[in-house]
Write a structure and sequence with these properties.
85 residues, alpha+beta, 4-stranded mixed β-sheet, 4 strands, 18% strand
């Protein structure tokens, strides 16, 4: 998976979300797969590799501010992935 710019990931998430943001959850992690297994989630799951930990945190905060639920109990220092479900 190739890292993508912050603005591109924000647009991809906007394009992906077909309902209101409050029906979605966003998180950041060093690797999105364990979180998917932890939630036993089988539905619409997507993850993106960001260019920096700062970008990952900024993307997460952007959507939390617009109503998405947060799945990140703490912001991992090495988090480069953003995921939604």
């Amino acid at each position: 998976m190739e890292a993508q710019p912050k603005d591109e990931i924000i647009q991809r998430i906007k394009d992906r979300v077909s309902t209101t943001y409050d029906q979605w959850t966003i998180g950041i992690t060093t690797d999105g797969s364990p979180h998917r297994e932890m939630h036993k989630f089988r539905g619409s799951w997507r993850k993106w590799l960001t260019e920096s930990t700062e970008d990952a945190a900024a993307i997460e905060q952007y959507f939390i501010d617009r109503g998405m639920k947060s799945d990140t109990e703490r912001s991992p220092e090495a988090a480069l992935y953003v995921y939604i479900f």
